[in-house]
Amino acid sequence: MRPSALDPLFAPATSLDGIGDKIAGLISRLVPADLTNRPVRVGDLPFILPHSVIDRSRRIRIAEATESGIVTLTLTVGAHYPPPRGKNNLPYRVMAFDETGEIALTFFHGRQVWLEKALGEGSRVLVSGRIEWFNGRASMVHPDHIVAEAEAEKLPVIEPVYPLTAGLSAKVLRKGIAQALNRFPKLPEWQDAALQQRMELPPIGTALQRIHAPVSPAELSPEGAPWRRLAYDELLAGQLSLALVRQKSRRLDGRPLLGDGRLVQGLLNALPYRLTGSQETALAEIHADMAEGERMLRLLQGDVGSGKTVVALMAMARAVEAGGQAALMAPTEILARQHHATIARLGEAVGLRVGLLTGRDKGRDRQKVLDELSAGEIDILVGTHALFQEGVNFSDLALAIIDEQHRFGVHQRLAITSKGNAPDMLVMTATPIPRTLVLSAFGDMDVSRLTEKPAGRQPIKTVTMPMERLSELVGRMRDAVADGQKVYWICPLVEESENIDVTSAEDRYESLRQVFADQVALVHGRMSGRDKDAAMSAFKNGEARVLVGTTVVEVGVDVPDATIIVIEHAERFGLAQLHQLRGRVGRGEKASSCVLLYKGPLGEVATRRLAVMRETEDGFVIAEEDLKLRGEGDLLGTRQSGSPGFHIARLEFHGDLLAVARDDARLALTRDPELQSDRGEALRVLLYLFGRDDAVRLLRAG
Ligand SMILES: Nc1ncnc2c1ncn2[C@@H]1O[C@H](COP(=O)(O)OP(=O)(O)OP(=O)(O)O)[C@@H](O)[C@H]1O
Questions:
Q1: Residue of the nearest CA to atom 5 in ligand 1?
Q2: What is the CATH number of domain 57-155?
Q3: What is the pLDDT of residues 598-652, one digit of tens each?
Q4: Is Hydrolase given among the entry's keywords (predicted)?
Q5: What is the ipTM of this complex?
Q6: Is the CB of 451 within 6 Å of ligand 1?
Q7: The model's pTM
Q8: What is the DSSP string of 539-583?
Q9: Ligand 1 near 334 CB (within 6 A)
Q10: Is 397 helix (H, G, I), strand (E, B) or coil?
Q11: Which homologous superfamily is 262-450 in?
């Protein structure tokens, strides 16, 4: 049950003056992304933090304001010039002056009664807003503030500036936030007293007050005490929910999965290569976890092409040896089919029964798989999200592997954990993630890393090339194809979108057909599953030698004899994505290359990104650079749902707080596993405050 202290914050935002459904809808775009599926609450508003301040402290005279910008002037009001009756589209002007000059205060939307009051002729007022100069005349359209000189203290000196969205005015938002702050209840302190003192964290109420009514710009800095307090709260809420997942999944009894090595050894013998040292180490860690009575919760992190799939297979083989079943969930249909093909082929050697289940499988075929699964006639089931839907019943699921590629957040892990059958869990992630992010997103898991690539891989040669050299490039590709090579050609969007100038995959496909005729295939997200499969397999078996595609080929696709990848409009992709895409080549023993086609002029960030791509192939280095260039939000945030993207914490400033929060969260649970002490109760408040309700439900009295 939600603590009643929080009731005022959980009231709908529309209960605030001046906020109707429409405004609430606009505000929802400013609150954390994972909250947008529910109506905006009063409690969301205080967490919309200002990004800068306007300093109105300096008062100047008209003539001193030589440039356009925000100024505060002390004026004597002159004549009013309302628009003629019936001409409300014309502005309402009020002239005002000081000893150095004159300024026109301009208002739209017709005659307004309040103007006559606020700007009585002959009165002295402080006016603050943006001054503009035109032909030597000064004007100010809709001043931000007008206050009588006698009430000068009413003018905010330092005024926070909030992120806005079209249709939402600063005034409305500010008023809403002010009301929400007034309703902010006194909440119990959830921070450990000693830690709070050591870290100099103000109480949450104080932090919010100070950040919304700063007395100096420094108070708004992410490194300032108010922001650090809020960031630490957010991180602690995240780490606490991860710790709860961990506690819950550990408590559900796992079972020791031991095997006689029959399948594992058989597979090793059947592999056409030897495992790398990294693969062996990771596998040993995984097998050791599985042998324990506690549930495994492990993350397998590997750079592109480091060979995660075979590690997954060996883990699943152990689960089957131990008498159970295993499931492997892939993020896309294409990938599920690819994994299925690889695993079924290798598994055949040792008699593993491998099934496939995706959203596309319907009717009788689907039923057959489901029946075999529940009868225990399938050992390993590969599929997409469809795997963990209702109606899919394993006879004895012992190991769940999730190839998450950033799309499988803590909420989904919670969902599987709450299912109750307590399988061991292994999450695989392809993009190397910086350490701080591993902690923030996977603080509940143990980590294995694949740090080396299989022997014999050659470096990928990466070049950048302006779009103008397209025809020269096509000529070179023609030679390469004649020489027996295979080429990926990546385009950013499926169709010409209205105002973005993007060469679509379809157009590119048509134009490349002029050159490569039947040797080119097309794959993109809007094609039917069957057509996608056909294109992929034509490319795999070599009927097609050029595969034009959108980023559907980004994740995981494995065609080891493809040696060239061309990425069009490379300047539009993020670093992590470019690295993933490039990782489609260089997967065999032949030398590969990557051509980054760009359309100039390039901005600073795009230039840097392309340079990083030329300089290194090391995914961990690239991830760190990406973090620097983009901030952590995008790296984990935008492309996935339910991930711990942060709203307040910014890891470039608050990364140091993460480890503290994790230790604090784990310690709190060790002392008080059900959060029943005073601090425990307060921590529940924290969880609700940051939208971690589902974590509270993991508690016995949740
Ligand atoms: N030890 C090894 N020696 C040689 N080749 C290997 C080894 N392990 C895996 N491979 C091969 O390397 C290729 C990449 O493996 P896999 O598809 O598992 O990579 P991945 O880690 O999933 O990469 P990505 O995330 O880029 O898809 C495959 O063709 C696989 O057969």
A1: 454
A2: 2.40.50.140
A3: 998 888 888 999 999 999 998 888 888 887 776 443 433 333 222 346 788 887 7
A4: yes
A5: 0.97
A6: no
A7: 0.68
A8: HHHTS-SEEEE-GGGSSS---TTEEEEEETTGGGS-HHHHHHHHT
A9: no
A10: strand
A11: P-loop containing nucleotide triphosphate hydrolases (3.40.50.300)
